Amino acid sequence: MGIALASVCLIVFTGALVRLTGSGLGCTDWPRCNETKFVDVSTGHTMIEQVNRLFTGVVSASVIAAVLLSYLRKPRRADLVKLSWGLIIGVLAQVVIGGIVVLTGLNPFANMAHFLVSIILVTNAFVLYRRSTNHPPAAYIRRLAPGGSSLLMMLAVISAIAVVTGTIVTATGPHAGDENAVRFGFALTSVARLHGLAVILTVAFIVYLAVKAKKWADKKFIDAIQTLLVVSCFQAAIGYTQYFTGVPVILVAAHIIGAVSFWLAICHVLFEESST
Hints:
By secondary structure, the chain is an all-alpha fold. The chain has helices at about 1-20, 45-70, 80-105, 110-130, 150-170, 190-215, 220-245, 250-270. The longest helix is centred in the first third of the chain and has 29 residues, at about 45-70.
């Protein structure tokens, strides 16, 4: 189960590498690379795109293994079977969306969907991994004192808004994956400010939750929310730095890694079983 989680996280970065190196249309066709070849590594761009596509096979193998393990587990647990099948469905959806991205010339809406479905896959894989290590089955959502669960729901919504607005910035700014790719016609400054506001609200709410949690949460939850706060601050710092330094590739790559790390930290807060 852990391998499935790691592979799902890693393919987010390989996909980002395609975009950041301008290799989004290294293969102009799908599922073949081009009209004459299924696999083509004749140029650097096609090689990078092919590596990303081939790594999808690694992800597929890991999620198929997760399904098999969920069926072979003694005693078999329906929750793990359903979650493992969720990974299969998610990977198939990503294959289709990836094809749409290529066939539509890197349409920004398709690119946004590609990343957001990846975040859903990461969530699914995280919950599967955590639940597979619990005996007996744990609750999906952390059990907290009255009022705590609603705060977690608010955290999930605010954090999701921050992620979605971030994808809008990405679909508006540079590093589209190809110099001729279609971009949103928004003013980059405006969408960046919108995303920045969402980030500020998210970090502020995490601080509020960290303070509030001391009154009703156990040590495991407090440690999880403090970890989330640290990751959020680092991610915000990277985001602001990349914006004010002209969006260099290395910082964009770090920001993508930070986005996955941030969401994993969110999952850790939401889905880690309470010790009480």
